[in-house]
Design brief:
single chain, alpha+beta, 7 helices, 7 strands, 20% strand
Protein backbone atom coordinates (compact mmCIF):
# COMPACT_ATOMS: atom_id res chain seq x y z
CA UNK A 1 0.00 0.00 0.00
CA UNK A 2 2.85 2.38 0.84
CA UNK A 3 4.49 1.87 -2.54
CA UNK A 4 1.23 2.62 -4.37
CA UNK A 5 0.31 5.80 -2.47
CA UNK A 6 3.87 7.14 -2.42
CA UNK A 7 4.29 6.36 -6.13
CA UNK A 8 1.12 8.30 -6.92
CA UNK A 9 2.32 11.21 -4.78
CA UNK A 10 5.63 11.33 -6.63
CA UNK A 11 3.77 11.42 -9.96
CA UNK A 12 1.69 14.35 -8.68
CA UNK A 13 4.91 16.09 -7.67
CA UNK A 14 6.27 15.65 -11.20
CA UNK A 15 2.98 16.88 -12.63
CA UNK A 16 3.21 20.11 -10.64
CA UNK A 17 6.80 20.57 -11.83
CA UNK A 18 5.80 20.20 -15.47
CA UNK A 19 2.80 22.48 -14.89
CA UNK A 20 5.21 25.11 -13.49
CA UNK A 21 3.61 25.01 -10.04
CA UNK A 22 6.94 24.50 -8.30
CA UNK A 23 5.67 25.69 -4.91
CA UNK A 24 3.26 22.76 -4.65
CA UNK A 25 5.89 20.32 -5.91
CA UNK A 26 8.30 21.54 -3.21
CA UNK A 27 5.65 21.10 -0.49
CA UNK A 28 4.95 17.54 -1.63
CA UNK A 29 8.66 16.75 -1.68
CA UNK A 30 9.19 18.16 1.84
CA UNK A 31 6.21 16.30 3.31
CA UNK A 32 7.25 13.09 1.56
CA UNK A 33 10.69 13.27 3.14
CA UNK A 34 9.89 14.73 6.57
CA UNK A 35 6.26 13.81 7.21
CA UNK A 36 7.17 10.34 8.43
CA UNK A 37 9.08 11.81 11.42
CA UNK A 38 6.16 13.41 13.30
CA UNK A 39 3.93 10.52 12.21
CA UNK A 40 6.39 8.09 13.79
CA UNK A 41 6.53 9.99 17.10
CA UNK A 42 2.75 10.26 17.36
CA UNK A 43 2.00 6.66 16.42
CA UNK A 44 4.72 5.30 18.74
CA UNK A 45 2.95 7.04 21.65
CA UNK A 46 -0.19 5.01 20.96
CA UNK A 47 1.07 1.75 19.44
CA UNK A 48 4.64 1.40 20.70
CA UNK A 49 7.21 -0.02 18.32
CA UNK A 50 4.45 -1.04 15.89
CA UNK A 51 3.67 2.63 15.43
CA UNK A 52 7.08 3.11 13.87
CA UNK A 53 6.26 0.66 11.09
CA UNK A 54 2.82 2.18 10.66
CA UNK A 55 4.25 5.68 10.18
CA UNK A 56 5.32 5.06 6.57
CA UNK A 57 1.93 4.01 5.13
CA UNK A 58 0.08 6.51 7.33
CA UNK A 59 2.23 9.48 6.22
CA UNK A 60 1.94 8.42 2.57
CA UNK A 61 -1.84 8.10 2.87
CA UNK A 62 -2.10 11.52 4.54
CA UNK A 63 0.04 13.07 1.82
CA UNK A 64 -2.13 11.49 -0.88
CA UNK A 65 -5.33 12.81 0.74
CA UNK A 66 -3.76 16.25 1.15
CA UNK A 67 -2.83 16.37 -2.55
CA UNK A 68 -6.38 15.44 -3.60
CA UNK A 69 -7.81 18.16 -1.33
CA UNK A 70 -5.25 20.67 -2.66
CA UNK A 71 -6.17 19.90 -6.28
CA UNK A 72 -9.88 20.28 -5.54
CA UNK A 73 -9.26 23.63 -3.84
CA UNK A 74 -7.18 24.91 -6.77
CA UNK A 75 -9.89 23.96 -9.27
CA UNK A 76 -12.77 25.27 -7.14
CA UNK A 77 -10.99 28.60 -6.62
CA UNK A 78 -10.89 29.28 -10.39
CA UNK A 79 -13.08 26.69 -12.19
CA UNK A 80 -13.15 28.77 -15.39
CA UNK A 81 -9.34 28.44 -15.74
CA UNK A 82 -9.06 24.66 -15.48
CA UNK A 83 -10.47 21.60 -17.22
CA UNK A 84 -10.88 18.01 -16.06
CA UNK A 85 -9.92 16.65 -12.66
CA UNK A 86 -6.40 18.08 -12.66
CA UNK A 87 -5.34 21.74 -12.49
CA UNK A 88 -4.62 21.91 -16.22
CA UNK A 89 -5.31 25.37 -17.59
CA UNK A 90 -8.11 25.67 -20.10
CA UNK A 91 -6.73 27.02 -23.35
CA UNK A 92 -9.07 29.79 -24.49
CA UNK A 93 -6.74 31.42 -27.02
CA UNK A 94 -6.76 30.27 -30.63
CA UNK A 95 -3.38 29.76 -32.27
CA UNK A 96 -1.62 27.92 -35.06
CA UNK A 97 0.70 25.13 -33.99
CA UNK A 98 3.48 23.15 -35.64
CA UNK A 99 5.38 20.22 -34.09
CA UNK A 100 8.58 18.69 -35.38
CA UNK A 101 11.19 16.18 -34.14
CA UNK A 102 14.68 16.33 -35.61
CA UNK A 103 18.25 15.17 -35.02
CA UNK A 104 21.37 17.31 -35.21
CA UNK A 105 21.87 16.72 -38.95
CA UNK A 106 22.49 20.00 -40.76
CA UNK A 107 20.10 19.12 -43.59
CA UNK A 108 17.27 18.41 -41.14
CA UNK A 109 17.86 21.64 -39.22
CA UNK A 110 17.96 23.72 -42.37
CA UNK A 111 14.81 22.10 -43.75
CA UNK A 112 12.99 22.55 -40.46
CA UNK A 113 14.00 26.22 -40.27
CA UNK A 114 12.61 26.91 -43.74
CA UNK A 115 9.44 25.02 -42.90
CA UNK A 116 8.94 27.10 -39.75
CA UNK A 117 9.47 30.30 -41.74
CA UNK A 118 6.90 29.34 -44.39
CA UNK A 119 4.43 28.21 -41.72
CA UNK A 120 4.65 31.64 -40.09
CA UNK A 121 4.03 33.40 -43.40
CA UNK A 122 1.04 31.16 -44.13
CA UNK A 123 -0.46 32.17 -40.80
CA UNK A 124 -0.22 35.90 -41.26
CA UNK A 125 3.21 36.63 -39.77
CA UNK A 126 5.21 39.31 -41.59
CA UNK A 127 8.20 38.24 -43.69
CA UNK A 128 10.73 39.91 -41.35
CA UNK A 129 9.44 38.22 -38.19
CA UNK A 130 9.04 34.91 -40.02
CA UNK A 131 12.70 35.07 -41.05
CA UNK A 132 13.72 35.94 -37.48
CA UNK A 133 11.71 32.96 -36.23
CA UNK A 134 13.40 30.64 -38.71
CA UNK A 135 16.81 31.99 -37.70
CA UNK A 136 16.05 31.57 -33.97
CA UNK A 137 14.85 28.04 -34.59
CA UNK A 138 17.99 27.11 -36.53
CA UNK A 139 20.43 28.64 -34.05
CA UNK A 140 18.73 27.06 -31.03
CA UNK A 141 18.54 23.66 -32.75
CA UNK A 142 22.30 23.75 -33.36
CA UNK A 143 22.99 24.79 -29.77
CA UNK A 144 20.61 22.18 -28.31
CA UNK A 145 22.09 19.48 -30.52
CA UNK A 146 25.51 20.02 -28.97
CA UNK A 147 24.14 19.40 -25.46
CA UNK A 148 21.67 16.58 -26.06
CA UNK A 149 22.30 12.92 -25.38
CA UNK A 150 23.76 11.05 -28.34
CA UNK A 151 21.16 9.51 -30.69
CA UNK A 152 18.31 11.36 -28.97
CA UNK A 153 16.11 13.67 -30.98
CA UNK A 154 15.11 17.29 -30.38
CA UNK A 155 11.41 18.07 -30.02
CA UNK A 156 10.35 21.48 -31.32
CA UNK A 157 6.95 23.11 -30.87
CA UNK A 158 5.92 26.39 -32.50
CA UNK A 159 2.82 28.30 -31.45
CA UNK A 160 1.64 31.43 -33.23
CA UNK A 161 -0.62 33.66 -31.15
CA UNK A 162 -1.97 37.11 -31.90
CA UNK A 163 0.94 38.77 -30.11
CA UNK A 164 3.80 36.26 -29.95
CA UNK A 165 5.71 33.53 -31.73
CA UNK A 166 6.53 30.90 -29.11
CA UNK A 167 9.23 28.28 -29.72
CA UNK A 168 9.70 25.39 -27.30
CA UNK A 169 12.73 23.10 -27.48
CA UNK A 170 12.97 19.85 -25.50
CA UNK A 171 15.84 17.38 -25.37
CA UNK A 172 17.26 14.71 -23.04
CA UNK A 173 20.74 15.25 -21.64
CA UNK A 174 22.85 17.08 -19.11
CA UNK A 175 21.38 20.42 -17.99
CA UNK A 176 22.44 23.49 -19.93
CA UNK A 177 21.08 26.97 -19.47
CA UNK A 178 21.60 29.39 -22.37
CA UNK A 179 20.86 32.24 -19.98
CA UNK A 180 23.76 31.51 -17.62
CA UNK A 181 26.66 32.25 -19.95
CA UNK A 182 28.31 35.68 -19.91
CA UNK A 183 28.57 37.84 -23.01
CA UNK A 184 32.28 36.99 -23.35
CA UNK A 185 31.69 33.22 -23.19
CA UNK A 186 28.34 33.19 -25.01
CA UNK A 187 28.30 31.18 -28.28
CA UNK A 188 27.45 33.17 -31.39
CA UNK A 189 24.13 31.38 -31.92
CA UNK A 190 22.93 32.17 -28.38
CA UNK A 191 24.15 35.76 -28.71
CA UNK A 192 22.05 36.02 -31.86
CA UNK A 193 19.01 34.63 -30.02
CA UNK A 194 19.32 37.28 -27.32
CA UNK A 195 19.28 39.99 -29.98
CA UNK A 196 16.12 38.87 -31.80
CA UNK A 197 14.05 37.30 -28.99
CA UNK A 198 11.90 39.29 -26.57
CA UNK A 199 12.23 36.59 -23.89
CA UNK A 200 14.17 33.36 -23.33
CA UNK A 201 13.42 31.01 -20.41
CA UNK A 202 14.89 27.65 -19.41
CA UNK A 203 13.89 24.74 -17.15
CA UNK A 204 15.41 21.34 -16.42
CA UNK A 205 12.57 18.96 -15.55
CA UNK A 206 12.67 15.16 -15.21
CA UNK A 207 16.01 14.86 -17.04
CA UNK A 208 14.93 17.04 -19.96
CA UNK A 209 16.13 20.45 -21.05
CA UNK A 210 13.23 22.78 -21.86
CA UNK A 211 13.94 26.11 -23.51
CA UNK A 212 11.26 28.62 -24.50
CA UNK A 213 11.95 31.45 -26.92
CA UNK A 214 9.37 34.19 -27.47
CA UNK A 215 9.46 36.62 -30.38
CA UNK A 216 6.93 39.37 -31.08
CA UNK A 217 4.52 38.46 -33.88
CA UNK A 218 4.74 41.92 -35.39
Amino acid sequence: LTYITRGVCIQFMRFFLVARKTRYALLISLFDGLGVIPAGFILCEFFGINGLFMSYPVSSALLFISIIVLIRLIIQRSPEKYMGGLPVRRDTESYAILKRTITEKATEISKMSMEMTEFCKENGVGSKQALFLGLACEEMAVYTGKHRRERDAIDILLRITEKDLILNFRSVGQPFDPMQTTDEDMPENILMLHKIASKISYDYIMGMNNTRIILPAE
